[in-house]
Amino acid sequence: MSTRWAARLALAAGAAAIVVLVLFAGLRSLLLMGVGWAGLLLTVAGAWWMLTHTGWIRAAAALLVVAAPITVLILYAAAGLLWVVLVSLALWMLAVYAGRSALVEDRPTGMPERPAGRAAHPFLIMNPRSGGGKVEKFGLAERARALGAEVHVLDPDSHEDVEELALRAVRRGADLLGVAGGDGTQALVAGVAAAHDIPFMVISAGTRNHFAMDLGLDRQDPSTCLDALTDGVEQRIDIGYLHTGGERDGSPGRVFINNASFGVYAEVVQSPAYRDDKARTILEMLPDLLAHNTGARLGVRAGSLAMEGPQAVLVSNNPYQRGDSAGLGRRERLDSGTLGVLCVHVGGAAEAAELLLQNGQGRGLTEATAREVVVDADAAVIPVGVDGEALSLPTPVRCRVEPRALRVWVPRNRPGVPRAAPPMDWRRVRRLALTMGRAATGHEAPA
Length: 447
Description:
The two termini are 24 Å apart. The protein has helices at residues 3-25, 28-52, 55-78, 82-105, 134-137, 140-146, 162-171, 183-195, 210-214, 264-269, 278-290, 349-357, 426-439, and strands spanning 114-115, 122-126, 150-153, 176-180, 200-203, 232-243, 254-256, 259-263, 298-302, 305-308, 312-317, 339-344, 365-370, 372-377, 381-386, 389-394, 397-411. The protein has 13 helices and 17 strands.
C-alpha cells in the first residue's frame, strides 16, 4: 500500500471508529470511554503496586489487575454495547496501524556501503554452545572452511580468551575477523578488528542476535552470513567504549556494540539466584530496588542532561527506535556518531500509567543523545550489563562513541533492517494524505 493510501485509510478508519461509537451509543459513548479509561488506569496501577510491594498488598494488587478489565467487559455487556466497543476499538487499531505504516514509508533509511572485495586470510571464531548449538546445526565451520576461512571452534569445556585468539590471528596475517556467537563475544572480537582497522564479520549464531538484526542479517539461517566472504559489501559503523574510574587516560576501554545497562536490570541479573529462578528473583528484588532501599543510587551526565537517582539507565551505541513494543530492540542506523541514553525514574503508579498511556512519553522516561555519557554512583563498584554480559565495574563509568571505527562486512543480499513505526502523529498523517493527493494535481495542501 502506498504512503498516500495508508494515510487516507488511517483517517477514514479513525473517523469511522468515532462514528460507530457515537451513532450506536449516543451520549453513553462518553460514559463508555470513561469506564474504559478507569479500568485501564486501575490495571496499570495494580501492576505497579504488584511490582513495588510484597505480602498482602502484592496479592491485592494482583487481584486488581485481573478484576479491573473483567469488570469493564461485564459493564459493557450488561449495557448491550460490548459489540459497539469492540468494533470501534478494531477500527481505531486499524487507523493507528495504517497511520504508522504511512509514517514509516515517509522515513529515509539505510547506511552507506561499498563493495567489500575478498579477504585473503579470514579468521572466524565459533562458539558451539551459542544459540542452542547453531554452529553444528547449520554446519557453519565446514561451510566456512570450504570458502577458505580459518575456523577456531571454542572448547565448550574450558574458557578461552577470544580477544587473545583474535590478536594472535592478526599477528599471523589475518585480514578479516568474524564471530559465530553471542553479542558479548562479538563485541570483544570487534574491538580487536577496530583497533587494527581490518574488517569484521557477524554470523548470527547467538540466541537473540541483536547486533545481527541491526545489521539487517538473516537471524533464522546464520549460514547465509557467510556470503559476505564471497559477495559482500562493507559498512563503516560506530563502536562504543566503556572507561571505568580506575583506568588511566588513553586506555582503550571495554567495547560495546549494543548497549550498557545500569540500575535495576543490572542488579537483578547479577543476583546468584537469578539463573535458577528468574521470575521469583525479579519479584523479590524489585520492590527494594525501585524504592532505592537496596542497590546503588545512580547519577547520569550526558551533554546538557544531568539526572540524579534514576532506577535504570540504558546507554546504547546509537539511539534505539521508539514507538512500538518492538522498537526498543532496533536501531535503524549504526553510524550517527552518537550514544542513545534512556533514563527511567518512576515515582509511583500515576507516573507508571502516564508512561504506558502516552506510548513511552512521560515524566518517568528521559531520553537524550550524546557523544559521551558518565554514570556515577554512591558505591565504589556497580553492576553493569554490557552486551548481555554481567560485569562489576568501578565508578564512575564513562561511555563514549568512536564514529565509524568498525568496518563490517555483510552479504550484499540480506533481509535488511526492520523499520519500527514511529509514534502516531495525526497531523503528519493528515498532511501526507492531503499533500500527496494534491501534489498529483499541482496543488499543495495547507500545513
